[in-house]
Design brief:
Chain lengths: ~325, ~130
């Protein structure tokens, strides 16, 4: 048994007040900035459960809090968003070397390439736009400013876009080792066209195909709640249109699934609000810039000594976002 | 002077080994990382083949745009440093708002687009499409 499995078994045993066995522990693919492990827990009566451990790897540039994500998943479930049920959360790094939480395993597929290409998922492709729009409207309806979500910082009413743009420009200036004229042009374009904040809600912050678990029938769970913040909900709509999440299915700008206008209509119906498509476009441009800056952040984690060929390779994906930014902003 | 295979030929051999033998023998996250590793080697192979030519072209475009006289540095590392320095000058002029005026803005956007396309010809040629 590995140290991790032994530590996990001791922790879960203490939580349940009984001896448990942890077997079939294996790391799941995906998640360059945190670790996700699948395992089976067996109690003395022979009952088994498949569970998922999410753990912060040490030494990363992106600092997140597992407790935050744990509480958000619970709030999302209460709001009717399909999410994995969360079970235990531990912030003491002495237990497993880094903060972590444990949640139920949701059977299904997460690989966007399979969703967008495999015949098996044709009905999922048809169902997902409506399901994603409905789930997103529910995320944006989660009540703010009350326990347990009172830890979320609230930007002033009309500054969602300014706060986010400022945050990522600062990260870019602090972290980029090379000059990026394409990003400079995009920053000027964005600063000249700041949208008024439509509403102030909880924003998922990483809402895209690739962060959902799906089956042949469609959406099963929305995952990866570590980028959540309070801001303009249109940020999530723009992010869903970022070219990187289409995996080559560029004819359908919304996650490779449908066109922008169709998705906006579905979201409007689900949320009961009107959406300004010009503002969504601003957030799409911002989203491509943000993904480009995240690529640089991930690459910096590699340069800082975290050994990962995946993190290293992300530095060279920055150019993809630069081309998309030029395409989106020229003549617009 | 080293003997054959050349550095590029050696890289190709390692990449082909990863693609043909290593990736199919693995699963899960290590299989994914092996595929990423093979792709990284493909990037390095393309970069070694084109770096000097594309840096020279980039220097020429920047020198024209920023009205710099003279010849590009002959040594590759000096050429890299010079392109970087000129690009930093270009960035300063963008941040000062000079590209908000035409025809300078259009000329800069054309240069930036060509530079980005050149990066993508190395890092991900398929992204450029047909």
């Amino acid at each position: 048994m590995t140290d991790l499995a032994a530590g996990l078994a001791a922790y879960l045993g203490a939580q349940l007040g009984t001896d448990v066995r942890v077997t079939e522990l294996r790391r799941l693919a995906g998640g360059a900035s945190r670790e996700t492990w699948l395992f089976t827990m067996t109690t003395p009566d022979g009952a088994t459960e498949r569970l998922v451990l999410r753990r912060d790897p040490p030494g990363h540039v992106i600092e997140t809090s597992r407790r935050r994500e744990f509480l958000l998943l619970r709030a999302a479930a209460a709001a009717g968003v399909a999410v994995p049920r969360v079970r235990w959360c531990e912030e003491d790094t002495a237990v497993l070397g880094a903060p972590f939480f444990v949640m139920d395993y949701v059977e299904g597929e997460t690989l966007a390439r399979r969703l967008l290409r495999d015949a098996e998922y044709a009905s999922a492709r048809a169902a997902l736009p409506e399901q994603l729009a409905t789930a997103l409207a529910r995320v944006h309806a989660i009540k703010l400013g009350v326990a347990p979500l009172d830890f979320l910082a609230r930007p002033a009413a009309d500054t969602g876009a300014a706060v986010e743009l400022g945050r990522y420009e600062s990260l870019f200036r602090a972290l980029a080792p090379e000059p990026h004229p394409a990003f400079e042009l995009a920053l000027r374009w964005l600063a000249a066209r700041m949208p008024a904040t439509s509403r102030r809600t909880l924003v998922h912050g990483d809402y895209r195909v690739g962060n959902v678990i799906f089956g042949p029938e469609g959406l099963r769970a929305v995952i990866d709640w570590e980028m959540v913040h309070v801001g303009d909900p249109l940020e999530d709509l723009g992010w869903l249109c970022v070219r990187a999440w289409r995996f080559g299915a560029d004819a359908n700008p919304v996650g490779g699934l449908c066109d922008r206008a169709a998705f906006v209509s579905m979201y409007e119906r689900a949320a009961g609000v009107r959406v300004d498509p010009t503002a969504v476009r601003w957030w799409e441009v911002f989203g491509n810039l943000k993904w480009g800056i995240i690529c640089i952040m991930q690459m910096q984690t590699f340069l800082a000594g975290v050994k990962s060929v995946e993190l290293a390779s992300l530095g060279r994906r920055t150019a993809e976002t630069e081309l998309e930014l030029l395409d989106l902003t020229e003549g617009a | 002077m080293q003997d054959r295979p050349t550095a590029r030929e050696l890289l190709t051999a390692v990449r082909e080994f990863l693609e043909a033998d290593v990736v199919p023998a693995l699963d899960g996250v290590t299989r994914f990382h092996a595929r990423v590793a093979a792709n990284v080697l493909a990037i390095v192979e393309r970069e070694m083949a084109s770096e000097e030519q594309s840096l020279l072209a980039e220097w020429e475009r920047l020198a024209h745009l920023l009205r710099v006289d003279g010849e590009p540095p002959a040594r590759l590392d000096s050429l890299r440093t010079a392109v970087r320095g000129l690009t930093e000058s270009l960035v300063r002029r963008i941040r000062e708002g000079e590209t908000d005026r035409e025809p300078f803005g259009r000329a800069v956007r054309e240069h930036v687009r060509e530079t980005v396309r050149e990066k993508l010809r190395v890092t991900n040629p398929r992204y450029l499409g047909g």
